[in-house]
Amino acid sequence: MRLLPQGVRVFVTPTPIDLRRGHDGLAALVRSQWGDDLFGGHLFVFLGRRFDRCKILFWDRGGLVLYYKRLERGRFRPPSLSADGNCVEMDATGLAMLLDGIDVRRVRRPELWAPKLPARKESPGRKEGIDTTIDS
User: Fold this and answer.
1) Which of 9, 50, 86, 112 has the fewest Cβ atoms nearer than 10 Å?
2) Residue 101's pLDDT is what?
3) Do 71 and 78 touch, CB atoms closer than 8 A?
4) 78 and 12 in contact (C-beta within 8 Å)?
């Protein structure tokens, strides 16, 4: 089951932030840290310094929406940083696990199945990408 449309991206901050910031303060962080399109419908996830609070900022039909969650027990387990250390991008499943307090670094996902494509046979006189079977 998919909760977010396929094109929506989820970004997580690499370091904890001051969660006293509201819509405008978090929007300024998105623009300055990532330079991403705030109005593209993507989700920007911010964790507090104790990792027991989380805010998610996104744009929806003419306004910014701020989702806030506080865990009464436990901590959010942030995912591992990307190679550049700028942010972490995750999918909807990873976000759901993060919001449930599951350590996404320890989750081992199975390899996705993909159908095997039959090997393509090349004829000696045929060039790659040009269909010579069509009569003029």
Assistant:
1) 112
2) 83
3) no
4) yes
pLDDT in tens, 30-76: 888 777 778 888 899 999 999 999 999 999 888 999 999 998 988 88
How many separate domains does the chain show? 1
- Evaluate whether residue 17 is within a structural domain: yes
Buried residues in 71-109 as b, exposed as e (16+ CB within 10 A): eeeeebbbbeeeeeeebbebebbbbebbeebeebeeeee
The answer to whether 27 and 38 are in contact (CB under 8 A) is yes
Residue 73, in any domain of the structure = yes
Residue with tokens 């909807």: 92
C-alpha span between 27 and 44 (Å, rounded): 9
- The domain in which residue 90 lies consists of 10-99
**Two tokens, residue 135:** 């009569």
Any domain includes 127: no
CA-atom Rg of the chain in angstroms: 22
Does residue 14 sit within a domain? yes
